[in-house]
Design a protein that fits this description.
Nucleotidyltransferase, domain 5, alpha/beta, 5 strands
Length: about 150
């Protein structure tokens, strides 16, 4: 009889061409918290910083949001985010789950606007909050399906 490795901690990613938002989530509580916004290096993910976060938080799984259009169609960014998810798995060997993240950045920006003015100096806050929203969505909607 084989048993699945229990998932307690996950890191969620909101992939973007310039920045990647990162959040940490817990399966016990179903909650996620914004963690960091990573700036891409030479149009590529900052793999060293990602590795550092993985060593620090020791997640058992990773979550990547895939941006689709409102009608469900994939875009170039969907393809790039999916490639990022496969590269995460290939580099670090952790299970990677993807979930549709349509409008997560808009929702994150809306939440932030309620508490502060959004401008160029704090736009990075949107990315990590979007990662938290993606992660919480996966925890609430998908985690039970995968266990």
């Amino acid at each position: 009889m084989t048993t699945k490795k229990a998932i307690h901690t996950v890191l969620g990613f909101d992939f973007g061409a310039k920045r990647i938002g990162v959040a940490v989530g817990q399966t016990l509580t179903g909650n996620a918290s914004p963690l960091a916004t990573l700036t891409n290096v030479n149009n590529k993910p900052d793999w060293q910083r990602i590795e550092s976060l993985l060593k620090e938080w020791k997640p058992e799984a990773l979550i990547v949001g895939l941006p689709y259009l409102l009608d469900g169609q994939a875009t170039e960014m969907t393809v790039r985010a999916d490639k990022f998810s496969r590269r995460l798995h290939g580099r670090f060997g952790l299970p990677v789950f993807t979930i549709s993240e349509t409008l997560s950045s808009f929702e994150a920006e809306d939440q932030l606007k309620q508490n502060q003015k959004i401008d160029k100096q704090n736009k990075h806050e949107i990315d990590k909050l979007a990662a938290a929203l993606i992660t919480e969505t996966w925890l609430k909607e998908e985690y039970d399906k995968n266990t």
